[in-house]
Amino acid sequence: MTTTPSSTIVAVVSEDGSEPVRHRAIELARESGGGLIFWDADAGGRLLEDPLPNELSADGEEEQFGERLSVRDLEAAGRAPMARLVREAEEAGVQAWGWLPSDQKPDSLRDYASRHGVGTVVVERGRSITGELEAGGVRVEVV
Fold it and tell me: Alpha-carbon distance 9 to 122, whole Å?
């Protein structure tokens, strides 16, 4: 399945799954034939803790992961709950990945969406990222 940039969906989810967001994002990806990236809202929230290897890690570890993480990548990073979300989407017929951001800043999500040609971001009501994303030209769906 090939995805066009505007058909890529990002779902901002917690490791507990953020069920309404997850279901809506899978539905949108299936309807558009696009890919789905689960953005881990629990990653990168702790001072001095990067969810993936970085320049301070052992030699070569930083290059181990790309910006779209497969089930295998997520499991290797110790993120089994996120791996389960990706697997669920794949079982529903959607091409899916996860991402573990190093911070939760709205502009980081906006930049990531821009780099990956994301057309829609699905978020839970109450997340304060809507304006930042819309300013970057990304459609936001709040559930």
Answer: 7
